Amino acid sequence: xxxxxxxxxxxxxxxxxxxxxxxLGKILIKRFADGEIYVQLQESVRGCDxxxxxxxxxxxxxxxxxxxxxxxxCRRASARSITVVIPYFGYARADRKAQGREAITAKxxxxxxxxxxxxxxxxxxxxxxxxxxxxxxxxxxxxxxxxILDYLxxxxxxxxxxxxxxxxxxxxxxRAFAKKLFDxxxxxxxxxxxxxxxxxxMHLIGDVKGKVAIMVDDMIDTAGTITSAxxxxxxxxxxxxYACCTHAVFSPPAIERLSGGIFEExxxxxxxxxxxxxxxxxxxxxxxxxxxxxxxxxxxxxxSVSSIFQ
Length: 310
Description:
Elements (H helix, E strand, L loop, with lengths): L1 E4 L4 H11 L6 E5 L5 E5 L7 E5 L6 H17 L4 E6 L18 H12 L3 E5 L14 E4 L2 H10 L6 E5 L5 H10 L5 E10 L2 E8 L6 E9 L3 H12 L4 E9 L5 H5 L6 E5 L13 E4 L2 H12 L10
Parallel strand pairs: 1-4, 4-5, 5-6, 6-7, 8-9, 8-11, 11-12, 12-13, 13-14
Antiparallel strand pairs: 2-3, 9-10
GO molecular function: ATP binding; kinase activity; magnesium ion binding; ribose phosphate diphosphokinase activity
Organism: Panicum virgatum
InterPro entries: PRib_PP_synth_CS (IPR000842), Pribosyltran_N (IPR029099), PRTase-like (IPR029057), PRTase_dom (IPR000836), Rib-P_diPkinase (IPR005946), Rib-P_diPkinase_bac (IPR037515)
C-alpha cells in the first residue's frame, strides 16, 4: 500500500499516513509558467495498491485537474489498483437538472475520474447520495458525523438539546444525527431558495424554545442558509445555537457571518484545509484523519467499510 498526497490538503494526508504507520509517497507536483500541472512519481508503485488523497476544494478546477494527472501517472507506472480519496468532492452540488439546459457536473466529474484510470473512490459526506450512482466504479461513502458526535459527547452542553436541519433536504442527515445524539428531538427550518448562494428562511417546524440547538449540515459555503436559520432559532427562543458541518468551504462572506456572535460554536472537520485568515474564535476544527485512515485500511484488506460506523 502506498499513499500519495496532492497539494490541496497535505496536512490531512500526513495525519492519515501517520495513523497507518507509513510514510507519504514521494511525488513531484509543480506548475509550468503558463499554469500547466506536472506530476512525477518519485518512487516505484508497480504492483502496489495506491491511494491518492486530494479534496477537490478551492481552487476546484486546479485541484481536480491535479488529481486527474496523479491518477494518470499511477496508471502509467503500473500500479495494481488506484483508489482516489476525496475528503471533499467538488461539483457534487449540481447532481440533477433543476432547470432546463443545465449541466450535471456531478456525473461529469464521476466520468472523468473513471476515464482517468481510478479503480475505486472514497468520498466523505457527498452533497447528495444519489450522486454515488453516477460512478461506474465502486464507491465507499463515509461520514464525518462520528467525529463531530464524539466531540459533542465529550462536552457538557445541555441535556435539553434539539437537532435542527437548516433545510428540508437535510432532514435524513439531521434525523440520523439526532438519533445518535442521545435520541434528541428534531426541528426543521423551511426555506425557499431565491438563487445560487441565496436563500430566504420562511418558518420553523418544531420546538426550540429554551433549548440548545445543534444545526447539522454537510457543508457551509457562504453561510447564508445556516446564519439565517440560526437567526430564526434565536427569535423562536433557542438558548444557544451550535453549527456543525463536515466541509468548511467558507466562501466570502462566510467568515463575517459565522463570527458575528450568533453561534456559540462552529464545529467542522479538516476535510478542507483552512488558512489562518478563515479561522475565528468560535471555530473548532476536528480531524477526520483516523476515520479516513481506517477506511483506507479496510479497503486495502478487503474488509467491510460499513463496520467502521457500527
